[in-house]
Every structure is written in structure tokens, then in C-alpha cells.
Amino acid sequence: MNRLVITILGIVAAVGGSAVVFVGINKLYDLTEDRYALFNAVAGGLVSAGVFGLVWGNRLVVSPVVVWLIAIAVGAATGYALGLFEDPMRRLASGIAGGAALGLVLGMRATASILPSIDPLAAIIWLAVGTGLGFAVSAVSGGQIDRLRSLLAGGAVGWLFGAWLAADFDGSRAEVIVVALVLGTLAGAFVGRRPFPNRIARGNMAVASRKYIFAGPALVFVASALLFPLVRTIWLSLLTGNPRDLQWTGLTNYGEILTDPGIIDFSGFGEIFSSNMFWLAVVLLGAGFVTGRIAGRRLGGNFAAGGPSLTMLAFGVILFGFALFTSIRGTIPNNLWWIFSVIVFAVSLGLAVAVLADRSKGENIAKSLIFLPMAISFVGAAVIWRLIYVARPPTDPQSGVFNTLWVQLGFWSDSTTASTVIAAILGVVVAGVVYLAWRGWQAEANAIVAGSLAIAAGLGYFIYRVVGPGIGGVAISELTGELVADPVLFIQETPWNNFWMMVVFIWIQTGFAMVIFSAAIKAVPEDLLEASRIDGATETQTFWRVTIPQIYPTIGVVVTTLVVTVLKVFDIPKVMTNGNFDTQVLANEMWERAFTQLNFGLGSAVAVLLFIAVLPVMYINIRRMQSERLG
Questions:
Q1: How confident is the model at residue 262, as a pLDDT?
Q2: What's the CA gap between 518 and 510, in Å, rounded?
Q3: Percent composition of the chain: helix, strand, coil (DSSP 3-state, to 5)
Q4: How far apart are CA 328 and CA 268, in angstroms?
Q5: What's this model's pTM, rounded to 2 decimal places?
């Protein structure tokens, strides 16, 4: 009952507080036209309160309450003066005086852990760099930005970085006062340089403020939940040491990441050329290219992308990717392997299910069953599949589903009667598949022919193993000479344990891809499909040359969404292996470094790498949405 009361009171306080803030800001901007000095005083106090609130929250000052109150008073007084004086020189002097006062307060009450040791040369160089950037910004703006204000802003940022952030934190109180005074003076001059608005401009300010008032809360939440943590994470990535004694080390953490063999290891790259998967991939890629060239020549072109050529090219790319990622080891290659496998299998399986289920009987039931894993959390799915993959000692009964079937298959293949029955049943299936391939040949459906023959070849090899050398999870015991269980260590055996974890993610995300693709396929104009059939195109040709081009934007949405989701994958590796057995990924690496080893600098550097990896995908998404809006 107490929790319910507390929850209700929290909701009431949140709603009431939001209403008060909203009404208060509206009333504040109503003062701009007739009581501009009062408006500026309140605004200056609020800005100072926000800035010093951040400093307070990060424990960068001592006696925080006193400092906060003084900062609010100085900010309010400076704002009042700027709202009262119209003369440019008096405004500039007021801004400089207020900024210098705030800088002096910050310098005098800064904690001992952030006292910089000023390197005059570095400080001057960074000041010059910042000023140069400010000049460039004003030049690019074509005169829309005041040149002096731009120089002051750039100089303040350059001075902050060169004299404070990039300095060693072993300086004196005098040095921090100097740095803060210069910084405050530059910032105050920037504010004081702003011209005094006339009555019309103040009226327009009150009208234009409404859109910012409505968007302000959302922007505040975005800034507090995303922007400020991002900046803080980037800053922490440039430091090293324990949480209570962080020291500036620049890009050292990034260098450590890129040189750590646990993060990325190319030592096994040469093994790719001795991999059967690699050479089979080369054969398939070559065969697919030749097949496409032959088909293209028949049609009067250079290359025709059809069912057989695309199938061989696709399998060739998959095998090449697997050969590469099983040779290059480390956290970053693991993440790349996750992206490659999830994109290939989740997209292709989702598209295949969407096409096969489209307008078929029981479509809704089939889609519901395939989409059902999306209702399970990643943690829950990882627990389920860990039980499916579990491997018991050879002397114990197997409880994992896969190992139970695998071990039983091994005992059946060792039995003449059981292996004969299995071979006979599968032989009938192979005959049916071969017949399907023959009918596909008659109907000139090359995709059906290629797929049927591939299935028949796989089943034929399986029959050979069952009746020949044997197949399944059994081995001869060295002690007794009898057959015993030989389960597969799905989670422990590297590097393929990575792929078995990816299966869990693919199992979940296939339903997501299927739903999106199904909606896109149903939106393809029926007129285009009918026109292609009238022109004599087969269903396969219609799919590849009409349906696929129509849903290209949807494929892009699904792929980019999956890339971002996979880059952040954390739950599945954490639950199934906790990064052991060479299965570490970037998100779990970040957690281990920051919260287990308490190396916040290195953990933040890994987080920044994740952010940088996501940026290209977000850029592609934004550009795509802009092009669609313009189109």
C-alpha cells in the first residue's frame, strides 16, 4: 500500500511540476517585450543554476550549495544588466564582469582533483586553434554570424581544452583561478557582444519562444539522457586509472583496444587458405559468376541474376564469411561475425517465410508462430537455448534436445536394422525431391531445380554416412571399448560456439523481418505482377525482377535496424557464456572493463567505439528518410 501511495504521489508531483514549469516559462517569455531586464535576470539565474548544477552533480566543486547560490546571484545580476543597458560597450563590460565573476567562483571552489597544471605553449596553441575554427565558422556563414562572437566562442572552447581538459591535474589553486577567469571572461564577452534587441525583436522573441517551450522538455530529456552521457563517456575514454583517481592519457585507451589480441587477433588469418570452406566458397562464387554470365549472354547482356547464379553466389559469400571469421579471432571480429550472420540468415529467412506464406492457407497461424519468439526477452531466449544446447558427461543421459537427438542418431547408425530403415525412408524422400527437380526442369523453373538438387545431394550424403562410416554423437570408449555418448559442446567449443549463440538471435529476429517483408510484399502493385506474367515471366523471374526491386527500401530498413540491434547485443552472450570460450562481444567487453574491472576509461573507450560503429548506419537511415520525404 505504501508503494502504491508513493507511486501516486510521484505521478502527481511529476505532472504538477511539469505544469508549473510549462506555465512558468510561458509567463517568463511574456516579460520580454515590456520587462526585458526582469526576463534577462531570471533567464541568467536559471542558466547559471543549470551550468553550476552540472558542476555540482559531477562533484567538481566544494561547498556546492554556497557556490550554487552565488552563481545564481551573479547570473541574475549579469542578466539584469544586459537587459537594462542598450549601449554596446556597457553591455560588453557587464558580460565580461559577470563571466569573470563566475569564473572566479568556479576557480576558488574547484576540487583539488581538477586543478590543472598549465602548459603555456599548449594553452596558447589550443586557443589559436579554437579562434581559427571560430573564424572559419563565421566565414562559412556568409556574414550571418557575428565575426567577433564566433572568435570568442572558438577561443573559449580552445582555451578550455588546452589549458584545462588536456592538462595534467596536479596544478595549484592559482592556476585553476587563472584558467577559470580567462574562460569566464571569454564566455562573458561572447554573451555581452550580443546586440540589444528592439521592441519588435523582443515581441518576435516572445512569439517564437512557443515552439521551443513545447519542444524544450523533449530536448531536455534527450540532452540529459543521451547528449550529456555521450560527452561524459567520450571524456572518460581519454582518462585512465581507478574511479577516484582518473588521469588524462589521451588516446591511450583506444591504442590499447586496437593492440589487444583479445580484442582483435589476425595471427590466424593464414589458416583461411587451408580451410575447406574457403575453397568451396571460391568454387561456388566462380560457378555462380559463370552461370550468370552464360544466362546474361543468352539474354543479350553481360550478367543475369537468376535463381541458380544467385543461389551459388549467396552460398559462396556465406561460406567465405564463415571461413574468414573462424580464422580472425577477437571481440571485434566476433561482432562483425554476428552482424554478417544475423543479416544474412534473419533477412533471407524472414523474406522466404513472407513469400511462402503470402496468400496461402493458414498464413496468419504460420506467421504468428514464427513471430512468437519476438515476445520472449533476449535473456529468456538465452536461458531456453542454453538448456537446448547443454551437453552432459558421456556417462550421463543427455538432457539437451540437440545432443539427445545427436547421440541417439549415432547409436542408430551403428545398428544395421535402424540404419537400413533410416536409409530406406530417406531414399524415398530423395526420389521425391529428384522428381520435383525433374518437374521443375520441365517447367523451366531453375530455382526449383537448383534447390531440389541441393537438397537431394545433402540427403544422399546423409544416407551414405548412416549406412557407411556412421554419423552421430558416439565414440568408442578407451576403457571399455564400447560405444558411449560423444555430445557436441555447443557452448564451449570455439569458434563455432559463437554461431550457436547467433542462432538464438536469428530465431528471434526472423519473425520481425518476416512481418515487415510481408507488409511490403502485399503493398507491391498487382498491376506490375500481372504485367510481368502476361509478358511470359515465370514466378521466379517475377519475384527477382519485380517484387524485390519494389521492396528495396524495406530491405534497407530491416538491414539497418538489425545492424544497430546486433551491434548492441549483450544479453545472449552474457547469459550463455559471459564472454568466456572466445565469445566476447563489444557490449559485454564494455561491461567487463567498466563495471567488473572498474576501468572506466577503457570501458568508455569501448562504448565510444560502439557509438562510432552505429553512426554510419544512422547516417544511412537519415539520408534514406530525407530522400523519401523529398521524393
A1: 85
A2: 12
A3: 75, 5, 20
A4: 6
A5: 0.75
